[in-house]
Specification:
The chain has a six-stranded antiparallel β-sheet with strand order 3-2-1-4-5-6. It has four helices and six strands. It is an alpha+beta fold. It has one domain: YdfO-like (YdfO-like fold). A hairpin with a 4-residue loop joins strand 5 and strand 6. Helix 1 packs antiparallel against helix 2 and helix 3 packs antiparallel against helix 4.
Length: 135
């Protein structure tokens, strides 16, 4: 995993300087198999299939507190806005924590994201067009 390139992709995510599909392509091209966004510690952690790990700060000022209760309907609305309308990561993050998301794993090879709430709730969202018929 090329940690320098991965950290560039993390910065591009925060600044909105690159479209998300390009960020995902860059991460995959640089050996990232999955990553974790942790709103509680305000960090990203990237993992390669070989066991390499890279950390980056999620340095948004004034991000709302993580809501106590998990609101799947609000989370889904935020996801759809990102997928269909190009919502920036900052706006998505604000909406996600307001919907009670404490963090999520994005499984790039697995083409899905699993979001977690503070009480163990979870929601798995497949990448557009990736959901198998038996899921």
């Amino acid at each position: 995993m090329d940690a320098n390139e991965v950290l560039k992709a993390a910065r591009a995510t925060l600044t909105g300087s690159m479209p998300f599909p390009e960020i995902v392509a860059s991460l995959i091209g640089n050996g990232v198999e999955y990553y974790f966004v942790d709103y509680a510690s305000k960090s990203f952690t990237f993992y390669s299939a070989e066991g390499a790990v890279a950390h980056a700060p999620l340095s948004f000022e004034d991000l709302p507190s993580i809501a106590k209760d998990f609101d799947k309907v609000s989370l889904r609305a935020a996801i759809v806005d990102s997928q269909q309308h190009g919502q920036k990561f900052r706006n998505f993050s604000e909406r996600a924590v307001t919907a009670g998301v404490q963090g999520y794993f994005a499984f790039l090879r697995g083409q899905r994201v699993t979001y977690f709430g503070r009480q163990g709730e979870q929601h798995t969202e497949w990448f557009p067009g990736a959901k198998p018929s038996d899921a």
